[in-house]
């Protein structure tokens, strides 16, 4: 009697696995079932509410009100409001026709579908053997920021699929569809616009033009749906200091300097020097971006495309005005690329372990008492920025790997 297809597939997948690898797979599956399915389905999905309410307003002809809470926000208030481009409300508009409980359930199902779509697409494209696929799946399913994203109702699983798909199709020179899915990711998270600079640096002008064309189309749709005065006010507000830069979960360079050099509703810095904080943020970001550009230009012809693409992603997370814990889900791409290339060394595993395991301990245990003020009131801003320091270390580690031996020097 023939085995069912799924049992045959699992049997092939686990063939040749050591006891340690089998235990790792069981742990990954158990983590996914508990944190990914059970906990995520029964959480409030706070961030989902933001886009859901914007979608409801859009489908009920109230597009002029989608930024009402964003415009009214004052520093110190609850920093939960819709501040994405109008295109995001358009993406979510079908869910705006459903009751909230049903919309969230459908969204969770879609999020898991995109997660597994990203896993399968990556494994089929970059993993050369069963062991690489097994380890890659484990890395996906053991990564804490991924589960935080699912529990908050964020869109990083869709972003994972979009970025992996755009990279795959770009390598196949299918520029139209690749640029389309990349632009969807850019609309969902504005900071991913930095990828335009990446493709300019590697001189893929045709691809850049396709990206600009898709961005222009989404912008045109935004002008049609949302009143021009509302869009203008949104762009002006987005380009100014909003008041959440020092938020405890912001792990970009902006978050570090704003927490350290200002007195704000979240932490007590070394002093209240907001202008110095903004100046230092701008200067250090420009230095990092300049060095990134030099590295890309130096190695773009000899380093694998995947490695420069991953470096761009890490740089984006450092330079973005806001990098929350759920955004760190995107670090899965460089981590699984290391597995697929056979370079997941001890150093890489330490970085992975921090983001996968230490962040929840750091966030919910060590800093659970007034976010670290119990330990060191005047240095809590430094403690809160530990993930930022680790992200900087991972950025330097990746550059070292790219520069070593023609792009093969990781470890």
Would you give an account of this structure?
This protein is mainly α. The chain folds into two domains: 19-240, no CATH class; 242-411, no CATH class. It has helices at 5-14, 19-41, 46-59, 68-72, 86-92, 100-126, 130-141, 144-152, 156-171, 175-188, 194-201, 205-225, 228-238, 253-260, 274-299, 305-319, 332-340, 346-366, 380-384, 386-403. α10 (175-188) packs across α12 (205-225) and α14 packs antiparallel against α15. The protein is globular.
User: How much helical structure, as a percent, in the residues?
Assistant: 55-70%
Biggest beta sheet attributes: none
The number of strands is 0
Strand content: under 5%
Low-confidence sequence ranges: 406-411
What structural category characterises the helix and strand content? Answer: mainly alpha
Radius of gyration: 21 Å
Structurally, how many domains make up the residues?
Answer: 2
Order of helices and strands: HHHHHHHHHHHHHHHHHHHH
Distance between the termini: 48 Å
Net shape: globular
Q: Number of helix segments?
A: 20
The residue-averaged pLDDT reads 86
């Amino acid at each position: 009697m023939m085995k069912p297809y799924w049992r045959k597939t699992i049997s092939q997948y686990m063939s040749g696995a050591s006891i340690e690898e089998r235990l790792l797979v069981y742990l990954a599956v158990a983590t996914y079932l508990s944190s990914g399915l059970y906990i995520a389905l029964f959480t409030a999905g706070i961030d989902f509410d933001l886009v859901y309410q914007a979608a409801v307003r859009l489908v009920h002809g109230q597009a002029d009100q989608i930024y009402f809470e964003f415009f009214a926000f004052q520093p110190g208030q609850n920093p939960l409001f819709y501040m994405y481009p109008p295109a995001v409300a358009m993406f979510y508009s079908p869910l705006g026709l459903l009751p909230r409980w049903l919309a969230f359930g459908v969204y969770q199902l879609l999020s898991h579908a995109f997660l597994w779509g990203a896993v399968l697409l990556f494994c089929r494209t970059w993993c050369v053997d069963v062991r690489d696929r097994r380890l890659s799946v484990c890395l996906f399913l053991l990564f804490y920021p991924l589960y935080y994203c699912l529990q908050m109702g964020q869109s990083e699983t869709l972003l994972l699929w979009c970025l992996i798909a755009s990279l795959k199709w770009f390598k196949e020179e299918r520029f139209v569809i690749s640029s389309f899915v990349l632009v969807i990711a850019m609309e969902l998270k504005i900071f991913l616009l930095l990828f335009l600079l990446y493709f300019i640096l590697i001189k893929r002008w045709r691809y850049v033009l396709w990206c600009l064309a898709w961005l222009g189309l989404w912008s045109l749709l935004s002008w049609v749906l949302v009143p021009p005065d509302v869009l203008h006010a949104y762009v002006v507000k987005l380009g100014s200091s909003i008041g959440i830069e020092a938020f405890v979960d912001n792990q970009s360079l902006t978050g570090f300097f704003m927490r350290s050099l200002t007195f704000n509703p979240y932490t007590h810095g070394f002093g209240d020097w907001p202008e110095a904080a903004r100046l230092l943020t701008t200067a250090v970001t420009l230095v990092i971006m300049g060095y990134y550009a030099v590295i890309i230009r130096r190695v773009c012809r000899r380093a694998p495309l995947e490695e420069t693409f991953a470096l761009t992603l890490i740089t984006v997370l450092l330079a973005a005005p806001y990098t929350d814990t759920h955004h760190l889900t995107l670090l899965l791409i460089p981590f699984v690329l290391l597995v697929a290339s056979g370079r997941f060394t001890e150093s890489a595993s330490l970085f992975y372990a921090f983001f996968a395991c230490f962040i929840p301990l750091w966030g919910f245990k060590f800093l659970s008492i007034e976010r670290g003020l119990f330990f060191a009131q005047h240095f809590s801003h430094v403690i809160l920025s530990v993930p930022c320091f680790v992200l900087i270390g991972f950025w330097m580690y990746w550059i070292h790997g790219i520069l070593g031996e023609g792009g093969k020097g990781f470890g």
